[in-house]
Structures are given as C-alpha cells and as structure tokens.
Amino acid sequence: MTTDKEKDKNFEIWLEALAKGVLLGGSLGLIAGWIGILPMDRGLFLGVLVGCLAGISFKNLRERRK
Hints:
Blueprint: H1 4-35, H2 40-65
Helix pairs in contact: 1-2
C-alpha cells in the first residue's frame, strides 16, 4: 500500500515533468511561429502537446534509471 506521502511525492514528480515539458515545448513552438515555420497558434498548440509527451517520456526514463 502506498501512503499519502508517497502519493504526494509521485504527484510532484508528474507535475514537475509535465510543467517542464509544457514550458519547453510551448517555447519552441512559439519560436517556430516567430520564425515563420508555423502559424503562432498552431506552433504553440503542437509545442505544448509534444512537450507533454516529452515530459512523460523523460519522467519514465528517469524512474527506470533509479
């Protein structure tokens, strides 16, 4: 059984990974929009979406190494 403290720690790890992914992906998407590769709104949306997936992948990779 997991305790509340372990659940909170796991939630913090998930939140940190998703926040990093969203910020980094959204930033890269907006940069692509400013350069003119994509429209700004599409770049932001795709950047956030890909950032979420990258954050989850990075979290899983970090947990596997432990």
